[in-house]
Amino acid sequence: MVLSISGVLLLGVIVFLFFRKDNLKVSHAVVCALFGFYLAGSTIAPGIRAGGATLADFIGGLSF
Predict the structure, then answer these.
(1) Is 23 left (phi over 0), alpha (psi -120 to 50) or beta?
(2) Per-residue pLDDT for the chain (64 aa), expressed as one digit of tens each?
């Protein structure tokens, strides 16, 4: 749960920065949001979720 909330927050900040700095159009952001919404309901969603969890575990295991 914490990972998904922080991931959403991070992606939201990135979209905001693109909107402010790189002239991201609102229509592009809406299309991306709808794509993500429909992708989450597809059959590939569990694979994406597993890949994200693996990546999070990998990053969490790094020590500097």
Answers:
(1) left
(2) 455 567 777 777 888 888 888 787 888 888 888 888 888 888 888 998 898 889 888 988 888 7
